[in-house]
Amino acid sequence: VRVVLGANRYGKAEVRLVRLDRDTPHHEIHDLTVDVALAGDLDAVHLAGDNTNVLPTDTQKNTVFAFARDGVSPIEEFALRLARHFVATPSIGRARVRVREHAWRRIHDHAFERAAGTRLASAYVTGRTEGGTESVVGGVVDLTMLKSTGSEFQGFLRDRYTTLEPTSDRVLATDVDARWRFAAPPDDWDSVHAAAKDALLTAFAGTHSRSLQQTLYAMGEAVLRARPELCEVRLALPNKHHFLVDLAPFGLDNPGEVFYAVDRPYGLIEGTVRRDDAPPEPDGHDW
Amino acid sequence: VRVVLGANRYGKAEVRLVRLDRDTPHHEIHDLTVDVALAGDLDAVHLAGDNTNVLPTDTQKNTVFAFARDGVSPIEEFALRLARHFVATPSIGRARVRVREHAWRRIHDHAFERAAGTRLASAYVTGRTEGGTESVVGGVVDLTMLKSTGSEFQGFLRDRYTTLEPTSDRVLATDVDARWRFAAPPDDWDSVHAAAKDALLTAFAGTHSRSLQQTLYAMGEAVLRARPELCEVRLALPNKHHFLVDLAPFGLDNPGEVFYAVDRPYGLIEGTVRRDDAPPEPDGHDW
Amino acid sequence: VRVVLGANRYGKAEVRLVRLDRDTPHHEIHDLTVDVALAGDLDAVHLAGDNTNVLPTDTQKNTVFAFARDGVSPIEEFALRLARHFVATPSIGRARVRVREHAWRRIHDHAFERAAGTRLASAYVTGRTEGGTESVVGGVVDLTMLKSTGSEFQGFLRDRYTTLEPTSDRVLATDVDARWRFAAPPDDWDSVHAAAKDALLTAFAGTHSRSLQQTLYAMGEAVLRARPELCEVRLALPNKHHFLVDLAPFGLDNPGEVFYAVDRPYGLIEGTVRRDDAPPEPDGHDW
Amino acid sequence: VRVVLGANRYGKAEVRLVRLDRDTPHHEIHDLTVDVALAGDLDAVHLAGDNTNVLPTDTQKNTVFAFARDGVSPIEEFALRLARHFVATPSIGRARVRVREHAWRRIHDHAFERAAGTRLASAYVTGRTEGGTESVVGGVVDLTMLKSTGSEFQGFLRDRYTTLEPTSDRVLATDVDARWRFAAPPDDWDSVHAAAKDALLTAFAGTHSRSLQQTLYAMGEAVLRARPELCEVRLALPNKHHFLVDLAPFGLDNPGEVFYAVDRPYGLIEGTVRRDDAPPEPDGHDW
Asked: Which residue from A36, D25, D115, D262 has the highest number of Cβ atoms inside 10 Å of its Cβ?
């Protein structure tokens, strides 16, 4: 039997980079974690340990820092600039650069407090011989939301292992991982990001939820309707369970006030919402 | 040789509790993690496995939930109520109840987004036979701050292992763990908390820092000067290093703009600041 | 423009289950984390909040526990039994059940110590109307290995951002994530697992490494050659960097003895090795 | 009111260091995380930002690496050597150096697999003007153990919040944090460590447990009886709950076989066991 090499890629992961912009009256801060993954003509290194075509991951890290000299914001553009650069290397046919930007809030002229929520951008670029395509994804991760009412779960399928009681009013909480694909580069990446994030929050808060799946779809649809530049949204929403505590053994009622929050297990709802005219995406982009 | 039992305690740790207040037009949310630690007449259980005096940790958890029925805010009071209850058990002489409250920001009538920063309260109460004392500590943890200028480090001691260059302008970043002891119960726990936290932020941002030790002392002093109810502040400040990247190999300068953020190792500065008339604290309170 | 639902699935994640087998002279322990993900006829719940076809994730959790009554080992079979059960539900067309088994080492008749390394199994089953296919993957994760010699990295591509020096002797360390697909169910899942894991360790230790890519391919090939039941191996190998410390400023040499271990960034090498006669896999199995 | 500086210290935390010993036929590996904390004449830096007496934490890190050139094993000695060095600095009166050694298991001549369990050592040394004392602590952390039988919990105190049922046979699991103080330096640190760890395991496995407190005391006593060089043991044992799953709703019994493992909350049992002739310890050593 013959053994062969299949899909492969390599890169530097979790480059931690802080960029200060000092040419404004008040400094700006951009705090990033960057992941690079490259693929190309890499059979020789796998099969024979021949590194001729291998751009070291150390070089990739250096490149991230050097490119940061010219600015890193908006991160969708920074990811694109880096990915385009990497595929200009002859042996590198495909580059995926993913950037997470950690939020800070200004508390004083030049002082900041770390805030919740992370903006994400991922650019996937193929070299000329592989089609010369570009695909950009934006998103938010580490965004935790909770509704204290306006959520129910009933009418579900029951089998012999079902013990769950239907509920007409529950706490709904989730850590949003939402990523959206651009049909084409927008004029203003920041305004698209702001509009998409706002649509997510509004849809989560405003949808009377019969299930987390329904909320997921509503959030995805809201993002797509908010900005025509976006054509596809992928969401992963853990259902962070909050169970009502039974206080009856202590002679107390519990009218929806005292809950215990459970870490594991959790529900996990994943789904894609897209426009029916979404352009195709080049193969190989893991958002 | 004789082997003897020394200091000991036990309890339930990390009880995760969410309390919704529903009697206001817009719900309020309080998201807590509670740790209980009890000590007392516990020789028999250690030496002979005799559980007669052992209030189960499961009961302690139940008690936390039951007490939450009457509200959990401010957390300093919730911790006190619980600690007083536990020392009413004859075999329990000392109780420490520590509560962390995780921040949420309202995004809609009944919808919330998790925010950065955690409020902390710790109450230590001894039973009548152990003096009947009460000690309360408040604080903040998980508060990450960064200054992009106004920080230097020079004039330090050098020995044969010193290679560090002095710097007149560096990035200063830290995860604040700040805890303050109350000299006496205040009229309004919330306003003390707000004033103390504000003092921390203002001192961090406003102090021209020659060292993180100096900043630590300034932060502690600011907290004490902000509120006379507070008599002692303990701070633990990691120095989260941000190193300027050398871009010269790539033909670029780097005028304080591109940094790499390092996870480990980190400096760790710990210190206490107190009023010289601070009342003594009962033995045994680990804040 | 029309917005439509794309790929989606849901399930219960991270069910923590410990199974004791007591019918042997010495108890056996199996410590599992189980993830379930189901897909099927789920448009109505996303588009209209109609839960008729939704088997609750709570029920999925119950099912995992109930099935554990009949044993959980080997985990490849446990995952298959669960996945087959779920697709017997009419509205559920596809089920992926992933199981991680955390290692324990016996220290006494009925006492155990947690050990390093986690065994993984993932079964993907489609219902009759979707082809009735079955795909099983095994593997190991959380397996950290290090070679203190026999690893070099030189002859690599250089560009204007390259500063790395070639090395003929470096420390090579990685956290192995290795997963292998079964061409067909074997007679004995445990013996395949043992042989595949042994092949991984031997190939890592025994390959003189010119790059981590070469080591990755050697590890994958060794697994495939060890057992004909396996047809495809996917590996993700972080390059956990250990940098030689420059002790010259202190008047000391460092002949490959003192290293600092860096958390981030790290290289990440991912690749697939397969037999050229590997049978196709049903769409949709995320290993 | 006057504000004053209280207890304080500073240092470099989490220095990650790997030491290879190459002068044996097969390399030896020592994988350490080192924390340094120094105290002394540091008022000026806190009050006025005067760094004259401040040995930089960067220098402390360099020192750790430089001292590693002469070997790092046994870690109790390495910690002592470092602490003695630091208090030779005139402004530094007290040094605590804590070392954790992460376990590796040889899988081949020069290849290793990471194993569970971490050895700990902590040396606390005061300078001549502060008494010139030395205190050494050893221990183990990250050691997870489980007994599948031989553990009960009954006869406990009940109050109005107690709902727990007594049990005569439960799963007992814990993550051991055990630290022991040396009365005097032993001839052979490694053999004391091995004997103490073995005593812990044997006592955990061999004690029929009526409560985790009883097991804790038995473990501490076993350590002290194993080696006369040790005079005090401190243990922190979380009670990692494993709850029997009720399978009755599915028509199944559950004779002690299927459990769910809960992350939070957990019991936490802390205690000290000492010889009654234990010498006093210098103030200020946080083990």
From this structure: A36
- Name the residue among D143, D252, D260 with its Cβ closest to that of C66: D252
Q: Measuring CA to CA, which residue among A116, A100, A125 is closest to residue A30?
A: A100
Predicted pLDDT at C1: 80
Is-catalytic flag, B61?
no
Q: Which of residues 102-121 of C touch A (CB under 8 A)?
A: none
Q: Is A158 on the interface with C (CB under 8 A)?
A: yes
Q: What is the mean pLDDT of residues A179-192?
A: 97
Q: Please state at what angle helix B57-68 crosses helix B75-87, rounded to 10 degrees.
A: 130
pLDDT number for residue A95: 98
How close B95 comes to chain D (CA, Å)?
A: 14
| Nearest-Cα residue of chain D relative to residue C150 | D110
| DSSP letter for each residue of B116-149 | EEEEEEEEEEE-GGGT--EEEEEEEEEEEEEESS
Q: Which residue has the tokens 């022991």?
A: D180
Burial of residue C248, with CB atoms counted within 10 A of its CB: 0-12 exposed, 13-18 middle, 19 or more buried: exposed
- Cα separation of the two ends of chain D: 35
Which tokens hold the place of D190? Answer: 């490694």
Nearest-10 Cα torsion for D77, D81, D82, D85: 170
pLDDT class for C24, splitting at 50, 70, 90? confident
Whole-model pTM: value is 0.98
Inter-CA distances, A57 with A13, A37, B177, C153, C241, Å: 9, 9, 36, 12, 11
Assess C146–D contact: CB distance below 8 Å, yes or no. Answer: yes
Average pLDDT over residues B106-115: 96
CB spacing of C161 vs B263 below 8 angstroms? no
Which residues of A fall within a CB distance of 8 Å from D264?
A: 263
Is some CB atom of chain A closer than 8 A to the CB atom of D25? no
Is A241 one of the annotated active-site residues of the chain? yes
Burial (CB count within 10 angstroms: exposed 0-12, middle 13-18, buried 19+), residue B113: buried
Say which residues have a Cβ less than 8 Å from residue A224's Cβ, sequence separation at least 6: A180, A230, A231, A232, A233, A273, A274, A275, C1, C3
**Under 8 Å between Cβ of D212 and D267:** yes
pLDDT value at C247 more than 90: yes
**Digit-coded pLDDT (tens) for B193-209:** 999 999 999 999 999 99
Residue type at position A145: M
- Radius of gyration of chain A, Cα coordinates, nearest whole angstrom: 23
Asked if B12 is an active-site residue, the reply is: yes
- C with D: how many residue pairs have Cβ under 8 Å apart? 176
Q: Which tokens sit at D94?
A: 């007290």
D132-188 residue pLDDT tens: 999 999 999 999 999 999 999 999 999 999 999 999 999 999 999 999 999 999 999
Task: State the pLDDT at residue B24.
Answer: 86
Average pLDDT over residues A247-262: 98
Predicted confidence (pLDDT) at residue A94 exceeds the cutoff of 90: yes
Q: CA angle, C188 as apex, C183 and C190 as ends, to 5°?
A: 100
- Contacts of residue C114 in chain D, CB cutoff 8 Å? 116, 143-146
